[in-house]
Amino acid sequence: GRIPGFCAAPVGRMGCRCCWALWLLLLLTATCARLLFCWYSGAWPESGAWTSGPARQEACPRPLALALQQHAHFGGLFNLSIPVLLWDGLLTPELWDRLSHVKAPYGWHGVPREAITSTLSLLNGSESAELLAESHEPRGPWPCIRCAVVGNGGILKGSGQGRLIDAHDYVFRLNGAVIKGFEDDVGTKTSFYGFTVNTMKNSLINYRDLGFTSVPQGQGMRYIFIPSNTRDYVMLRSAILGVPVPEGPDKGDLPQAYFGPDVHAGKFKLLHPNFILYLTEKFLNSSVLNTYAQDIYMPSTGALVLLTALHTCDQVSAYGFITKNYWKFSNHYFERRKEPLKFYINHDLRLEATLWRDLHKAGIVQLYQH
Ligand SMILES: *[C@@H]1O[C@H](CO)[C@@H](O)[C@H](O)[C@H]1NC(C)=O
Ligand SMILES: *[C@@H]1O[C@H](CO)[C@@H](O)[C@H](O)[C@H]1NC(C)=O
Ligand SMILES: *[C@@H]1O[C@H](CO)[C@@H](O)[C@H](O)[C@H]1NC(C)=O
């Protein structure tokens, strides 16, 4: 039931069916290497099929772009051409005009101009425009970049998903991503760490006793700054320069203490404010935006990181994200005793839970749930 090199999953088990006629047609017409040779048919396997993970060297069994084409609603929402990252090359007078009237994280209203321009001038190479390394060698003629995004939800405790998580090409983590002691459940690999300076420092304070004593570090790791505030631009600039933060609430902080000793611009990525606005409007347009809390509402860090992966990778699995049965699990996987999930007015986790469920049903993300 398997055509070597083409269909990654044994027929049936993963709902993937190879079709030679389609394949030949695509061979003739496809100019885009991401076009696909397995006909996607249906939703993800329900729980029970989770023993089969992504294996390297296999082609994309469930490409996101094809699932989007086949889904009227989400196909119309996703814009895979929108720039995910902001860098110097995108800074035009028009962008300045537009963003300077919009408050953070969607724009620059209230953020000193100097903080923005001095930071962006350091993000001036092509590596600042792309999340994934250009050196990523496509395996075989049709690349499939598989990403795992690991949230910190209690559903991961005792899950044994670590090996499958680490088998992805890239692993995204965020905020209080405790690894030591939880390797079997959450894996050990980290390619990207997403955060705002506020959420990173709160995690280091609040979860220190539970094992979050340092942000993931390592050669080749990349940091995704979410620009929720002036302090994010100032920390990013200091991180690239490798100097102590000169001003603001983080004054005196040494960025190397967070991000490790090796410093260069390519290590730090900045989410585009306009991308955050697009994500909020299209995917997480919460009814909170009609209330007094509209000024503090924004998608959660986890939501921004997962949606970033969905606009970057060919296939995305989400682990440790909120599910409909969240009440069965502790707030985080690293808590010793079960603690209920806390809902704050600045995020809309119920709306996020609905979004992940619907994206899973549509075959666009593979959401770990049980
Ligand atoms: C998608 O984003 C690009 C770049 O911002 C834009 O030019 C294009 O109009 C967008 N497409 C749709 C359908 O909105
Ligand atoms: C980027 O900016 C740095 C510092 O201003 C400069 O040394 C470097 O040559 C610039 N690189 C490019 C590709 O323009
Ligand atoms: C967001 O939802 C509100 C209703 O709550 C609606 O009026 C508005 O048009 C929506 N915005 C977008 C961008 O879809």
TrEMBL record:
InterPro entries: Glyco_trans_29 (IPR001675), GT29-like_sf (IPR038578), Sialyl_trans (IPR012163). Keywords: Disulfide bond, Glycoprotein, Glycosyltransferase, Golgi apparatus, Membrane, Signal, Signal-anchor, Transferase, Transmembrane, Transmembrane helix. It is found in: Golgi apparatus membrane. Pathway: Protein modification; protein glycosylation. It is an enzyme of class 2 (transferase). It comes from the Eukaryota. The keyword Signal applies. The lineage of its organism: Eukaryota, Metazoa, Chordata, Craniata, Vertebrata. It catalyses: a beta-D-galactosyl-(1->3)-N-acetyl-alpha-D-galactosaminyl derivative + CMP-N-acetyl-beta-neuraminate = a beta-D-galactosyl-(1->3)-[N-acetyl-alpha-neuraminyl-(2->6)]-N-acetyl-alpha-D-galactosaminyl derivative + CMP + H(+); a 3-O-[N-acetyl-alpha-D-galactosaminyl]-L-threonyl-[protein] + CMP-N-acetyl-beta-neuraminate = a 3-O-[N-acetyl-alpha-neuraminosyl-(2->6)-N-acetyl-alpha-D-galactosaminyl]-L-threonyl-[protein] + CMP + H(+); a 3-O-[N-acetyl-alpha-neuraminyl-(2->3)-beta-D-galactosyl-(1->3)-N-acetyl-alpha-D-galactosaminyl]-L-threonyl-[protein] + CMP-N-acetyl-beta-neuraminate = a 3-O-{alpha-Neu5Ac-(2->3)-beta-D-Gal-(1->3)-[alpha-Neu5Ac-(2->6)]-alpha-D-GalNAc}-L-threonyl-[protein] + CMP + H(+). Disulfide bonds join 147-313. Residues 1-33 form the signal peptide. GO terms for molecular function: alpha-N-acetylgalactosaminide alpha-2,6-sialyltransferase activity. One of its GO terms (cellular component) is Golgi membrane. This is alpha-N-acetylgalactosaminide alpha-2,6-sialyltransferase. It is a single-pass type II membrane protein. Belongs to the glycosyltransferase 29 family. Its EC number is 2.4.3.3. GO terms for biological process: protein O-linked glycosylation. Pfam families: Glyco_transf_29.
